[in-house]
Design a protein that fits this description.
The complex is a heterodimer. By secondary structure, chain A is an all-beta fold. In chain A, 0% of the residues lie in helices and 45% in strands. In chain A, a hairpin with a 6-residue loop joins strand 8 and strand 9.
């Protein structure tokens, strides 16, 4: 079955840049989406659409990119309120099956 | 205002069945692809399955762990989205979210989630 791989955790000081990666073979053909979840069990929030499109209301410090089999979410000048779990999402090559990455815990302190 | 409201969660014994519902409002439901996502205690998000719109033949796809046990359906006349779960196992214990795409192609609207506990 198709998998997306994320590093388990990233820790930065306030104002620094946090970089989160997501790797998967199908990312060469399929978009990556990024979700922020501040508390387990709380509804996630879409912070990056179609690799690099920031939805309305998401701060400009969030940016995204994708190259080859790796998608990246960057938080430039991370704030304490950005502490959360971040999940990438995409589909397999057929577009039929969705998959989330394992999540990356971002700590800002 | 877009709203997704799940209901139907609860405690069920292993091998039992449960039907979750998601009431949608505030967007053209019949055109929307609807998705179920779950999160087990202490675990990450897991895509469960998706139903496309009638225009796309209401094509349904399921994640491997639930295929053959779960059934997704929709009622466009009632703006309702369903997840029928059968042969439930302890590993199905999770909060179940319904979600959809309205303004963008990612899941930009989510329900609050409904908890399902499978235990004897």
């Amino acid at each position: 079955s198709y998998e997306l791989t994320q590093s388990p955790s990233v820790s930065v000081s306030p104002g620094q840049t946090a970089k989160i990666t997501c790797s998967g073979d199908a990312l060469t053909k399929k978009y990556a989406y990024w979700y922020q979840q501040k508390q387990p069990g709380q509804a996630p929030v879409l912070v990056m659409d179609e690799d690099d499109k920031r939805p309305s209301g998401i701060p400009e410090r969030f940016s995204g990119s994708s190259s080859g089999t790796v998608a990246t979410l960057i938080i430039s000048g991370a704030q304490v309120e950005d502490e959360a779990d971040y999940y990438c999402f995409s589909t397999d090559r057929s577009g039929s099956l969705g998959v989330f990455g394992g999540g990356t815990k971002v700590t800002v302190l | 205002e877009v709203q997704l409201v799940e209901s139907g969660g609860g405690l069920v014994e292993p091998g039992g069945s449960l039907r979750l519902s998601c009431a949608a409002s505030g967007f053209p439901f019949s055109n929307a692809w609807m998705t179920w996502v779950r999160q087990a205690p202490g675990k990450g998000l897991e895509w469960v399955g998706r139903i496309k719109s009638k225009r796309r033949n209401e094509t349904i796809d399921y994640a491997a762990p639930v295929k053959g046990r779960f059934t997704i359906s929709r009622d466009d006349s009632q703006n309702m989205f369903y997840l029928q779960m059968s042969d439930l196992r302890s590993e199905d214990t999770a909060i179940y979210f319904c979600t959809t795409t309205v303004m963008v192609t990612g899941f930009d609207h989510w329900g609050q989630g409904t908890p399902v506990t499978v235990s004897s």
